[in-house]
Amino acid sequence: MKSEEYRAWLGLQGYANNTIAAQMHRAGRVESHYGDLDKLHETDGLNSLIVELTYTQADRQSNRLNPTKIPFDGDPYNNLASYRDAIRRYIRFKEEGFNVLDQSFEYESVEEREISEQKPLHSISLEKDMQAALRLNIEQLEQGLKIIDEGKERSVESGFIDITARDANGKTVVIELKTGVAGQRAIAQILSYMGDILISEDDVDSRGILVAGDFDDKAIAASRVVPNLTLKKYKVEFSFVTAE
Questions:
Q1: Alpha carbon distance 50, 218 (integer Å)
Q2: Could you read off the pLDDT of 27-74 as tens digits, one per residue?
Q3: Does 146 lie in the same domain as 89?
Q4: Residue at 210 is within a domain
Q5: Smallest Cα–Cα separation from 189: which of 171, 225, 165, 162?
Q6: How many domains does the chain have?
């Protein structure tokens, strides 16, 4: 494992030091029991390792013992979910490359959002910037929302949920963020994440909020048949003060 590069990459994602330490520790434990992660990635993209670390709700209900080489105490379902999360993040690191978020940012244009009677989000450019701003002002998106993902993207079978929250009625809310105009692919992506929550938590009341600068006609049409999916537009606003 490229430890120092990976640690730096995690830092560039905006993760807190304790989150970085936890991700490094989990990836290191997996590597110590299964071998060099970089070599395994060269073999099959670490897909077989993800399969090895999979432990389903059905396994949990049948009280299946820990099927992996990694020894640990406690619930296998939660423990192995955290190890899969660590490996999926390492896969992202390998696929994106260390320099993706380094010095060369490419900013996409953003359109207006329509979140009425709310304070503006600041410094929105890349999706990471939007995510960081929204985490600090989550109730601007919807009153009563509380973030429940411990400050980091949640790993599910289909990928990474930008923000996982709970609404005022106690329902899990999957929040996906897109800069620019979102289309059908963005709808499919958030529905996949919502399906993962449905399966992993048996949560039939979960909701989705897709946030983008704008939505094309196909995205809007697709959203009409999903009652628990809300589309929200954002806009960027600036305020100015005189330097003294």
A1: 34
A2: 999 999 999 999 999 999 998 999 999 998 888 889 999 999 999 998
A3: no
A4: yes
A5: 162
A6: 2
Highest mean pLDDT among 12-26, 156-170, 228-242: 156-170
pLDDT score recorded for residue 126 = 65
Do residues 140 and 121 touch, judged by C-beta distance below 8 A?
A: yes
Helix (H) or strand (E) run with residue 81 in it: helix 76-96
In a domain, 150, yes or no: yes
pLDDT, tens digit, for every residue of 14-23? Answer: 777 888 898 9
pTM of the model: 0.62
Q: Is residue 55 part of a domain?
A: yes
Residue 115's alpha-carbon distances to 10, 33, 47, in angstroms, are 31, 48, 40
Domain hosting residue 210, numbered range: 127-233
The answer to whether 180 and 161 are in contact (CB under 8 A) is: no
174/214 same-domain check: yes
Q: Tell me whether residue 50 is in a domain.
A: yes
The phi, psi pair for 19, rounded to 5°, reads -70, -40
pLDDT at residue 119, as a whole number: 37
Cβ 210 vs Cβ 176: under 8 Å: yes
Cross-strand pairs, 211: 177, 232
Closest CA to 239 of 121, 108, 110, 113: 121
Strands 214-215 and 172-177: unpaired
3-class SS at 121?
strand
For residue 38, give every residue at least 6 positions away whose Cβ sits within 8 Å of its Cβ, in sequence order, or none.
Answer: 1, 2, 94
CATH code of 192's domain: 3.40.1350.10
Q: Which region among 67-76, 119-128, 140-149, 205-214 has the lowest average model confidence (pLDDT)?
A: 119-128
